[in-house]
Amino acid sequence: ASLLKEEMAHHALLRESWEAAQEAWEHRRQGLTLPPSFKAQHGIAVMVYTNSSNTLYWELNQAVRTGGSSRELYMRHFPFKALHFYLTRALQLLRGSGGCSRDLGEMVFRGMGSLRFEAKRPGDSVRLGQFASSSLDEAVAHRFGNATLFSLRTCFGAPIEALSVFPKERE
Question: Is residue 153 annotated as a catalytic residue, yes or no?
Fold first, then answer.
């Protein structure tokens, strides 16, 4: 928790987003069935990330894409270590320990408005290198853009609809 406080002291948007999500979490957590190790910080991190009314999710994704190029860069300059940890752990806990084969996995969709992406061959594996909100509902994904529509079969996603700031997006 001290790392989170330190990072919030240096990043006003992180602090404001965390505090708003913390308040919302107090109301949301009632009635949720969550894994035994799931803590408030995990739920708050999901709520922070899914709040697209500010740019923090975008800033986190930018930092994740560039911050892992070296240990030194990550340790010195990655501004969201605590948020990244809590969000990653939340997804791990929500996903559970079930295995996944290449043929299985959950079908999800992600619409992109500004990125035009064409696979060399349909069915090829793709690594996005960041957190990537997606939806169980293809129509929802189309609302986020039509330049590229990813139809993904993933073993690494987790259902966060109940924790999302926008549950109708079926993330």
Answer: no
Total count of residues recorded for the chain: 171
Q: Are 150 and 130 in contact (CB under 8 A)?
A: no
CA distance 67 to 166: 28
From the options 3.90.176.10, 3.40.50.720, 3.40.50.620, 3.40.190.10, give the CATH code of 2-98: 3.90.176.10
Give this prediction's pTM.
0.85
Neighbours of 57 (CB within 10 A): 19
For residue 93, give both structure tokens.
């806990």
pLDDT tens for residues 4-26? 999 999 999 999 999 999 999 99
Residue 26 bears catalytic tag: no
Q: Choose, from 7, 28, 133, 135, the residue flagged as catalytic.
A: 133
Choosing from 17, 134, 170, 171, the catalytic residue is: 171
171 is catalytic: yes
